[in-house]
Structure formats: C-alpha cells, structure tokens
User: Fold this.
Amino acid sequence: MPFPNKQYGRDRSLPVENIGFVVEMNDASFLHIGDTMATADELAALDIAQKRVDLAFVSYWHLLDVENARSFLEAIGATTVVAMHLPAADAPPSYLDPESNLEDLILLVEETVPGVLVLTGVMEIRQTRTGG
Assistant:
C-alpha cells in the first residue's frame, strides 16, 4: 500500500520501501504497517479503516503521544493494536527516546494507548479474539 506522497519510509535508504500489508484470513484481517513514518493523514487517505482491521501491528513510535496515537489509530480503525519494534532493553539511549529505559518506554506506550498489547519476551504469546 504505497503512500500518496511516495515517501515510503522517510529517511530510510532505498530499496527499503516500508510498505504495509493487510492480510485477510478466514473472518479476520491483520495490518502490518512496516517501519513506516507515515502520518495519520497519509493512512487516512488509504481508507484502511474501511477494511475492517481486527489486529494492527504498529511501530511504537506512533504511540508515544496521545494526540498523534489517537489520530493514527483512528485512521487504521483496528479493534486490537500490538506495539512493535520496541528496542532491546540494552539499546543505546537514542533508541529509547523519549524515555531512559525500556520499562519506562513500555509504560509510556501503555498509558498513551490503553489496551495496547506490548510484547517484550522472545516468542511471547498472547491470545485475543478477532474476526466475526
């Protein structure tokens, strides 16, 4: 799903385009937005919310600010959101910005988006109900 302005991942090196995918399986649909730096307006222009997304995998950096997260998630329209691409606990401080450690970064995401699923363990499993 290329973005209208053709700036797929912004500040990324080509050939990486960071496009997203909606996958439908049985009665459920899943959205993976890649590493995109797309804005809520860009996502809204793609009418993703009309696709009835049950589960969206969203990079955590879209979920750090209440207003941005609200408009971003509204453009997606997903029933359940999984925060992805969280840095490792021993990542350099620049990766953990705006917090100083992973635990605080996770708390910020969870406070900003109540109900978000944040998976931190290797191969961690969570169950959620999706689809009709």
